[in-house]
Amino acid sequence: MWVLLLVACGEDTSPSTPATPGTANSTDALTSPWVGPTPTGVWLLNLAVAPLGGLAVPFQIETTGAAGVLDTVTIRGVSLVAEVSDDLTTVGPIVIDETGAFVVAIDELLIPGAYTITGSDVTVDFTLHAAVSADGTFCGTVDGEITSMGLPLTGSTFGASTWDGDIDGPTGCGGTTVPTIPRIETCPTLTDGENTGFLSGGELRDFEVVLPEPYDPAVAWPLVFAFHGLGGTPASLLDGSSDLRPYASERGVILIVPQGLDSNGSTLWDTFGTPDTNVDIVLFDDLLTCASATWTVDPDRVYATGMSFGGLMTGALLSHRADVLAAAAPLSGGILTPFAPTAAPPTLVVWGGETDIEVEQDFHLLANDMIDMLTTNGQYVVACNHGLGHSLSSDFWPWVMDFLGDHSRGIAPEPYLGGLPLSFPDYCTAP
User: Fold this and answer.
1) Of 38, 175, 397, 417, which one has the fewest beta carbons inside 10 Å?
2) Residues 204, 153 share a domain
3) Could you list the residue range(s) of the whole structural domain that residue 53 is in?
4) How far is residue 160 from each of residues 45, 88, 156, measured CA to CA in Å?
5) pLDDT tens column, 263-313
6) Residue 59 — φ and ψ, nearest 5°?
């Protein structure tokens, strides 16, 4: 899955006269009213994908032409270490209108996994609505769809700068600055059950709380955050086949299950953004603050779990809130952000083997990459490959909750050094 730096363009850059991409050898009859610089050369194009929380996806674009006509526009993929792919597609000719605006339409572009953040192939349709600046650079807005995920690109932007081998660059006409999101200062009183309209990071958020029965304020309770998958709801984790709800009372924990924000008709999490600009990391911080103000929460027993996109959100918390979590259990998840905590909590990695594929993304690869990252960091990891593909069974919760409950923050020695408890299935392995 991609993540973008969500940056608003400084102005409306849609062209007044849309250009029509044609064939690269048909430029003889084309003329352009544009008298400014024609943006030819090799460029870094950073595409900020709005539905994925502003993830900056780099491309290399090479343009040829003169006198306001781009004869060819060639697109190449770029990895996070600035390795460049072979040509992915070439379109043209494209006419720049009298205002400096032009349109580049790209259909069914397959980006190989080596050049995506998830390591899996991603297919996109997108149209760049561009405007040329006085210095010959260009920027604008993007529409289209990440077709492999069914996510519209509405609200996305891009910026182009001269290619110099670095993938840092503008993601829109307004630059790359994203404001820091403040944390909550005054908490409302949270309630058992559904909570709506919780103001966090400038957004009104919904979530469900399940208190253990009976709840005793004289007792310090463990707190488990659980994150739903793409398009899900709190009920999709708490009830039905997932059936997490009974474990609040059965295991004596407070459950908080947030609702992901809607992005063009699908609910999801920002699993890529940095903590200061990530509304979902801020939501975690604010909910922990306000839950601790409302109920008696044990700060040494705060946990995170989640399925699929919720497993990726759990991975983001492992990256950014390693000092807060006592343990984590990502289910068919992964880590999509730079991972360099000085310490990280014990982690239970659960996934469904080589058939663990969803929205054309390989969660088998993501899970194994996560295991490698965590173990390289010296972290205690239990790996459970259930072989059932991209699925969550209520049968998982007893041993998932055992793992979380057996690990308080900073516990030593590791309680599973002598072997896993009998409640764990035989497909789980520990170091």
Assistant:
1) 417
2) no
3) 4-162
4) 4, 18, 14
5) 878 899 999 888 888 999 999 999 999 999 999 999 999 999 999 999 999
6) -130, 155
